[in-house]
Design brief:
The first copy, chain A, is built from nine helices and eleven strands. Chain A is α/β, with parallel strands linked by helices. Chain A starts with a strand and ends with a strand.
């Protein structure tokens, strides 16, 4: 599958690229096409797989599925730029807007979720929320074996299945269905919760597993 | 430490009693003192430790710390009965009010948390929230080794430390500090989230671990 990492030149994008490259064609996107191409070249050498790079709009047009590897503060104008090339495609939002209140990390939106905003702008894409709780630093350390669960919200079983397939194509990550986009606030809120637990207990790069 | 399980004749109470008995004096409480005594006798034989049983008010008076092993629907009148004997003592609330909206489990309170209600009634106790995400059936299967994390909310490091000590006295359970009681809604909300993940993915008796 051709998977585009929109805004994929950061640490999270690096990790996703390295872990997806074994079984997908990875495309790195950036506002700055040259930056994306240079990063793609570097990651191609590192991963021994061909990774391409170009502007966000170009990779959005070339991919089958896109992951929004963008910072937590969402810029609707940015989404509008890529809405047309992403029509009909799977779009995965790992975005969590994070604020701080009284020294505690919180979901920064007063209500609703980042993915519902994404879905309202990318109204003709098949939007899922996932990958919120994977620590970027751990992901980007490609020598490191991982064993994480990834909760996925999607408005249909079909979109869930597509998203789960992309996620499960990475070693050591198990997708779990967690409801529709209207349930996503609770899923996105796990990230500030995990950050608080990490800070209060002097732990780093925490993620979660669902165990029996 | 003398630990009372208020309303402790159910499955969760049974599991807690069996797992606490190795390093604590466990007291089973119930509205019905005879029922509590019979259950205590049964669990004493099962655990090879002396477990006592009596009315909720009596065990509340005898204990150093109390765990509210009561059903998820909170009855303030019930709390008022045990408020006086619990003055100055550690009280642990694992209570999560759970509702169902559009087929999805949700935190049943419109705002705030069960533990904040508990703390407002037991205003002279040292109240912590914890133990929300341990599956009762797994806990009660005392032959079963467990490996779970338990998030704890408490309004001071001192109350957290006391609560963590009780929790860590059980094999296979790691306490983690998760904030004050005003952060507890997010912690209590993990239970409906876990129930949804279990249901949607055909898994049973799920709990969580924080992993790196």
């Amino acid at each position: 599958m051709k998977v585009a990492l929109i805004g994929g030149t950061g640490t999270f994008g690096r990790g996703m690229a390295l872990r997806l490259a074994a079984s997908n064609d990875v495309l790195i996107g950036s506002r700055d096409a040259t930056k994306a191409m240079n990063r793609a070249l570097e990651l191609s050498r590192l991963s021994n797989h061909t990774i391409a790079g170009d502007s966000n709009a170009v990779v959005a047009g070339q991919c089958d599925a896109a992951i929004l590897a963008v910072p937590e503060t969402l810029d609707p104008g940015f989404l509008e730029e890529i809405a047309r090339p992403l029509v009909g495609k799977l779009v995965i939002s790992p975005i969590v807007p994070i604020g701080v209140i009284h020294g505690r990390f919180v979901h920064a939106l007063a209500q609703g979720s980042a993915v519902e905003t994404v879905a309202s702008v990318l109204a003709e894409s098949r939007v899922a929320a996932a990958l919120h709780t994977i620590p970027a630093a751990t992901l980007a350390d490609s020598a490191r074996r991982i064993d994480f669960d990834v909760l996925v919200c999607a408005n249909s079983q079909e979109v869930y299945n597509e998203c789960a397939k992309v996620i499960a194509s990475m070693d050591g990550v198990r997708p779990l269905y967690a409801g529709t986009l209207s349930d996503a606030r609770g899923i996105e809120s796990l990230t500030p919760l995990i950050l608080n637990v990490a800070k209060l207990n002097h732990l780093r790069n925490l993620s979660i597993k669902f165990v029996t």
